[in-house]
Design goal:
By secondary structure, this protein is of the alpha/beta class. Helix content is 19%, strand content 30%.
């Protein structure tokens, strides 16, 4: 679902499992989508599917994005992180506009702010450019949010293993590999099973470590086999126009 064609290759397309056991009930479908960039096609598709979608991203080019795109689709200028942080960022391509303010929120903090604390999440989408490992290990794994999450779309980045790991010494490589494995095993122990994998076709990059050759960037899709359907309580408050 979603995505667009770039150089004759699909980018931004995400998977969705429609098996009856994990299909959401009508008007009981919560979606959090992180790192949308400027492509909301997947989020719009899920909204039309009957979900309440909350999309997140933040840089200077999102300044004029409205919060309420439609009745079921909201966009918030924030990024997911391990803890709350507000900082100025500056990029060379933003020279005419100067630095811009970015807010990072932990997932638990966002759900509390938006009135979803304790709510079962149908779909969690994360494309957060390499910080997914720390976000899971240092933040999300310390909550029970994933136990109530049904489907997970996760773009993974093995940035620390690029160029055959040439920028790391042996111990640093081992630390990186162990971190990646801890997160994968953490998902599995919470009931998630890998349902689909494919390389990132827009920017394919291969690397080799310890004789194994693999893609640095890839799209993964997970389904929670321990999922037990329950009915979410309706929101008791209106969606805020701003997070803070």
């Amino acid at each position: 679902m979603g995505g667009y064609y770039c150089n004759m290759k699909v980018d931004g397309e995400k998977r969705l499992c429609l098996d009856a056991e994990v299909l959401p009930m009508k008007n009981n479908c919560l979606v959090y989508s992180f790192g949308v960039g400027h492509d909301l096609t997947f989020d719009i598709d899920l909204e039309e599917f009957g979900c309440d979608v909350y999309a997140f991203d933040s840089d200077h080019s999102h300044a004029n994005y409205p919060t309420f795109i439609s009745d079921r689709l909201a966009f918030y200028k924030a990024r997911i992180g391990t803890h709350f942080l507000r900082e100025f960022q500056y990029r060379q391509e933003n020279l005419p506009t100067g630095p811009f303010m970015v807010e990072y929120w932990p997932l638990s903090g966002l759900m509390k702010r938006l009135g979803h604390q304790g709510t079962q999440m149908f779909y969690l989408k994360m494309d957060i450019e390499g910080i997914e490992w720390d976000v899971f290990e240092k933040s999300i794994f310390k909550t029970d949010i994933l136990e109530g999450t049904v489907q997970l779309s996760l773009e993974i980045h093995f940035d620390e293993l690029r160029q055959n790991g040439s920028s790391k010494n042996t111990q640093e490589l081992l630390d990186s590999v162990n971190k990646y494995l801890r997160v994968i095993r953490g998902l599995q122990t919470r009931g998630f099973q890998l349902a689909h994998w494919e390389p990132n076709y827009k920017g394919p990059e291969l690397t080799s470590v310890a004789g194994l050759r693999f893609h640095v960037y890839s799209e993964t899709f997970w389904v929670n086999l321990n999922y037990q359907r329950r009915k979410n309580e309706p929101r008791k408050t209106r969606r805020p126009k701003k997070l803070s």
